[in-house]
Amino acid sequence: MPPHPPATASFPGLDLVSGARDRMLAPGAMLLAGRARATAPELIALIEAIALAAPFRRMSTPGGRTMSVAMTNCGALGWLSDARGYRYTPHDPLTGLPWPAMPAAFTTLAGKAAAEAGYPDFAPDACLINRYESGTRLTLHQDRNERDFGQPIVSISLGLPAIFLWGGPTRTDPIQRVPLEHGDIVAWGGQARLAHHGIRPLAEGTHPLTGRARLNLTFRRAG
Ligand SMILES: O=C(O)CCC(=O)C(=O)O
Ligand SMILES: [Fe+2]
C-alpha cells in the first residue's frame, strides 16, 4: 500500500479528474465516474419539469407491497409496476397522458456513456426516474422487462451518494458494493446485461442540488 493514498480516494467528492474512479464491474459493465457532473444542474432542472407533468409516485409490486422508491418516467415508454405485474406503457396511468418526451440532453448523454462503455448505437426509448430518500432502497433484481437484451442499460446517479449492489446472472452470485456519487454513470450490457443489482438503503444527507434525495435516471431500449 502506498504511504499516501491518492487524493481522490480520501476526498471522493473532490476528484476533479473525471474518470479517476472508473472501473469495470464485470466484463460488459463499466462505472464511468463523474461523466454526468457537468450537465447535472441541467438534468435536475429537466427532471423537475418532467415531475410537474408526470408526478413521482410510489408504485405497488405485483405482490401488493408499496415500493419505497418514488418513480416517474419520460420517453415513448414508461416502466410500471402494479397488481398486474411489471411492464412498459406509452401512457402515464396517473394522468392518462403520454409520458413526457425524453429531453435531448438525456438522450445525448446516455448515448455518449453507452458508446464509452462499448455500446455505440444505443437509442433509448424509455427513461425511468427514481427518487430515493433516507432509508429508501431497491432490492436485488434483474432488468428484464425489455424486449431485446442485446441493448444495454445506462444509469445516471444525481445528488446524494448510494451504495450500488452489483451481482451476477444468478441471484446467489457474490455481490460487490460499489459507491456511486453525484454524476456517476454505470453502463452495462452484453454478458452483464442480466446481472442482478440493487441499491442499499440510502443514508441521511443533504446535497446542494437535490436536497435530501438521490435521483437516478435509468435508460433502456424497451420496445
Ligand atoms: O438507482 C439505481 O442506481 C438503480 C436503479 C435500477 O436498478 C432500476 O431502476 O432498475
Ligand atoms: Fe435495475
From TrEMBL:
Required co-factors: Fe(2+)
MF GO annotations: broad specificity oxidative DNA demethylase activity; ferrous iron binding; methyltransferase activity; oxidative RNA demethylase activity
Recorded GO CC terms: cytoplasm
Enzyme Commission number(s) from the entry: 1.14.11.33
Positions of the Fe2OG dioxygenase domain: 123-223
Signal peptide: none
Alphabetical keyword list: Dioxygenase, Iron, Metal-binding, Methyltransferase, Oxidoreductase, Transferase
One Gene Ontology biological process: oxidative RNA demethylation
Binding residue positions for Fe cation: H141, D143, H197
Cofactor comment: Binds 1 Fe(2+) ion per subunit.
Xref: PANTHER family: ALKYLATED DNA REPAIR PROTEIN ALKB-RELATED, NUCLEIC ACID DIOXYGENASE ALKBH1
Designated name of the protein: DNA oxidative demethylase AlkB
Source species of the chain: Gluconacetobacter dulcium
Gene name for this UniProt entry: alkB
